[in-house]
Amino acid sequence: MVDRWATTPYPLLRRGGELLCDEGVDDMHRPTKLLLYWSPRVLGIAFALFLSLFALDVFDEHLGLWKTILALSVHLIPTAIIVLVLAISWRWEWVGGMLFIAVGILYLARMWHHPAAVAGISGPLFLIGALFLINSWKRAEIRA
Predict the structure, then answer these.
(1) What is the pLDDT of residues 33-50, one digit of tens each?
(2) What range defines the domain where residue 82 resides?
(3) Integer Rg of the chain from CA
(4) Rounded to the nearest 5°, which phi and psi values hold at 20?
(5) What domain count does the chain have?
(6) Structure letter (DSSP) for residue 16
(7) Where are the alpha helices (DSSP H) in 26-114?
């Protein structure tokens, strides 16, 4: 019979077949690590796609080709900002988390008189920013 603790990668202290201490075993399991690492990134991509849907209304304007391209590019500026912040966040979670929260506060300050818009835009920005900050604080455990 194979001892299951003999093959574990964690440093365990044993005496006479009895488990004495499991200090080397981390508290965060692999699915939790993956969820904590990927959730702000996937939510950031989904939010950028959500914002880009608002740019599609330029095709109802029946403008010429160049005016439509110009209007589409202007409507996609918020999406470009989110993609830029997401790219920064991918490498530097702490900076990106603060930037997502800052963009949420900026939107909240400019659109405070539209509570539904604030909840739909600033809320996800705050959530994504908080997840990146948690990711930054738990970085050693996630990457272990």
Answers:
(1) 888 889 999 999 999 999
(2) 28-143
(3) 23
(4) -95, -40
(5) 1
(6) T
(7) 30-53, 65-75, 77-91, 93-110
